[in-house]
Design a protein that fits this description.
Length: 120
């Protein structure tokens, strides 16, 4: 877990392995192409700086989307054309804007009928 203190958005990770991988720029560079890695790193910094998910929605950082087909609200930020940073919003569908906690699930190719995970 990354706890940035204050009222900022709190970020959790689906696994310890995912947290170690995404928290280190060198690890990201070994897995993803350089431009994807830079974009992923920027998105993580934007999430850490936000007070709530509504800030990300208002600023359109990473072209945020709420994903369909999940029981709990999930969102994504665009890394490239089809590649997304996927996360679960710890919120109800009516409180997505006010959400202050997210759980990062990983980086995947979200389109094409099946998920192709690059980092999980």
């Amino acid at each position: 877990m990354v706890n940035t203190g204050g009222w900022s958005l709190q970020i959790f990770y689906a696994s310890k392995k995912l947290e170690q991988c995404i928290s280190d720029q060198r690890s990201i560079r070994q897995i993803l192409p350089a431009d994807w890695g830079r974009t992923l790193w920027k998105h993580l910094l934007h999430l850490k700086a936000a007070d709530c998910f509504g800030d990300i929605l208002d600023l359109h950082l990473g072209r945020p989307e709420i994903l369909k087909g999940y029981k709990q609200p999930h969102g994504s930020l665009r890394i490239s054309g089809n590649v997304r940073l996927i996360f679960r919003l710890k919120a109800t569908p009516t409180s997505i804007r006010d959400c202050t906690e997210i759980e990062v699930k990983g980086v995947c190719d979200y389109h094409g009928g099946k998920d192709n995970w690059y980092i999980r």
